[in-house]
Amino acid sequence: MNQQETAATYSHGNINIYREVMEVINHSTDDFLFIYNIEKDEIQFFGNINQTYALRNHDSLKNTTTELIAVVHPADRKKLKNDLELIISGEKNYHNLDYRWITLEGKTVWINSRGTVLRNENGNEPVMLGRVSEEALRHLYNPLTGLWNKVKLREDLKDILQNQNGYLLLLDIDGLAAINLRHGRDYGDMLLKEVADLLDFHPLVQKAYHIDHNNYMAIVDSEQEEDAQAVFSDIQAAMVEKCAFTASAVPINREFFPNVSSILDSVNLTMKKAKQKKGDQVEFFSANAIDDKLRTLTLMETLQQSVQNGCEGFELFYQPQFKAGNYHLYAAEALLRYQTPNGDRVFPDEFIPLLEQSRLIDTVGLWVLEQALLQCKKWRKKLPDLHVSVNFSIVQFEDVFIAEKIMAILQKTEMPGEALTIEITESMKLQESKHFLRCVNTLRKLGIVFSIDDFGSGYSNLGYLKKLNVDEIKIDRMFVTGVEKNTYNHKLISNIIEFAKTSAIRVCCEGLETTRELAVLEGLQPDLLQGYFFAKPANAATIEKTYINDTTSEYAQYLHFIEKLYQAKGKMGIIYFDPKDILRENDVGLWIIRINEEDNYYEMHADETMERIMAVEQKFTPQECYEYWHSRIKPDYLDYVHQNVQIMKEIGKVVQLQYPWNHPVLGEVIVRCSGKRVSDADGMIVLEGYHRIISNVEGY
Fold first, then answer.
1. DSSP assignment, residue 155?
2. Which pTM value belongs to this model?
3. What's the pLDDT at 428?
4. In whole angstroms, how far apart are CA 506 and each of 203, 423, 451, 484, 525?
5. What pLDDT does residue 290 have?
């Protein structure tokens, strides 16, 4: 019945009949039936309602609306009062409301109350006949917190998306499992109830939902982002001593979200982004993020179809690797490219993660290996010693038969293992995997070379290289770029190359782009060079014309480039010598000091010469090295040294100073040092300079 329809009529005899009928029906239903005399403000409930709620708790069989409201959840009392006022005033003749009652035990129960208003033959003495049902809503709310659940949320959103605006706020309690483990489940349940009450009573929250164990959603009755943020901030502030939250919010807008699934998917996707940031702000919906998600799903389907069609759309490009010094072509690195059936080119950093996530990389990776070996086999007819490098994903080495599959492809292509280099991006997972280490040992026996790509950008350390037993390291371009100006990177590359040579490991510097970088790097004597300075990645036909087929004009241009390169190096007056020998013979030690002023953190990196002249007998950490040097400065000169270090930091020019220093063997000596501030790195101030003992220097 429409709630605005005219009330039905009755006679006094009818009312008595209604009471008798309700008494009879009461025995066959779990609902609580009632008759509400509106003028007398009397509600008569039928059944054993007093066993569960504080109603009919005296001798009378009737209750007033005040007594009824007393058992209603505080957050729902206002909407019940408003509905009753409309009925009492005659503006409504039908009652249908979902709200909460509080049991005698203090538990929250959602009920649905329905009733129809009747009036006598004269249109007076209104009464309402109805029922209160617990079962109608039992599947729609969370029994612990009393908030609506995700089933009710989906029902409500259908109407909300059509008829109102605002924000859908998703609130997640961080680390609830850990909280339960630390404090007990009862404490965790109490915390869940507190958060529910905070949302339930917040003035900007129209409706709150407990959709999962540690997840809540709220309909924020405002179109302003600031109000959605305010709800989150208020909850966060109230619970700051007990737990932390992550939150996301999306606008309730039919233009963005045509259906319930789309808005729920969007708020969940936005929550994933919020989890990555872990800030104290709400992460708001971005239409671009949704477009990216849809693009990703579409691309995944396209990739699956391409793999099913024999890796259709995939292509290999190659980037040459040259021997340092003579620039002869040593190898070509195979690089995977992809073009959709529509002709759109997709970047590797977009499609390769999808291949890994979907395990399509297993099929595509073996296809890449076979194509690269076949191409190398063709080129070897002209260059018999040419090698090919193929990148392998960590995911591929999860296949227990990967070694056998690689050997099978070598056999199929009739290629020797020594022609193949397998490149692997450094990862802690590799050295923790016994299966991977077995694969390395098995494949190295065939002559296959293992290379660590992007060395220095991840988890690399000397123990890592030793355990993996690698044959090559490729120094990441982040250290190569601008190496002629960055002393820190220069020293790092120098140390890596020096270690590699003593360990019989080949070194390739990648990302080379300028002649000056080339000049500096060749002074450090790496084995291989790779980068745009020589060649960008190109398809097989271009590589063949430019570097392999000596009858083409492209090959002639390549030889001309090499000739001009030698001429440029000659004009630059480049003489390769080892500066370490000169500094070592003159007892000049080099240092780099890195400073984090906010944390009062200092570290010193000293070269071998400086460690020797300071009589360092053990290997210090950078923090220990700084403390060793600093603690031996003569106390009377500490302020003087600090002032000069401060000047280095502030003016960025070379500062020279000398001071007494307590040498552990020679006693007090005079030290001269010079230093300046260089480019900051990793958010730290970086100073670099030299250190020399001048007490016994002739002519001093």
1. H
2. 0.53
3. 46
4. 67, 13, 9, 22, 11
5. 64
Q: Name every residue whose Cβ is closer than 8 Å to that of residue 18 and which is 6 or more positions away in sequence.
A: 10, 35, 129
Is residue 32 exposed (0-12), middle (13-18) or buried (19+ Cβ within 10 Å)?
buried
CA gap 456, 426 in Å, rounded: 9
Q: Give backbone dihedrals phi and psi of 241, rounded to 5 degrees, phi first.
A: -85, -10
d(CA 77, CA 72): 6
Phi, psi of 594 (to 5 degrees): -115, 135
Query: Cα 170 to chain center, whole Å?
Result: 18
Please state, in angstroms and rounded to a whole number, the distance separating the CA atoms of residues 375 and 554: 19
Q: Rounded distance, CA 136 to CA 206, Å?
A: 22
Angstrom distances, CA of residue 63 to CA of 45, 49, 554, 626: 8, 12, 100, 82
**Quick one: which of 218, 203, 167, 192 has its CA closest to 75?**
203
pLDDT at 80: 95
Strand duo 42-45 + 32-37: pairing: antiparallel
What pLDDT score does 487 carry? Answer: 78
- Would you state the pLDDT for residue 17? 75
Helix, strand and coil in the chain, % to nearest 5: 45, 25, 30
Report pLDDT for 463.
Answer: 57
Amino acid at 264: L
pLDDT < 50 regions, the chain:
1-3, 428, 459, 575-576, 699-700
Specify the pLDDT at position 540. Answer: 96
* Bridge partners for 217 per DSSP: 170, 209
Q: Is 150 helix (H, G, I), strand (E, B) or coil?
A: helix
Residue 39 in 3-state DSSP? coil
pLDDT at 1 (0 to 100): 41
Report the length, in residues, of the chain.
700
d(CA 96, CA 555): 86
Do the beta carbons of residue 555 and residue 549 sit within 8 Å? yes
Q: Are 7 and 126 in contact (CB under 8 A)?
A: yes
Contact yes or no for 260/158 (Cβ under 8 A): yes
- Residues contacting 440, CB < 8 A, separation 6+: 450, 468, 469
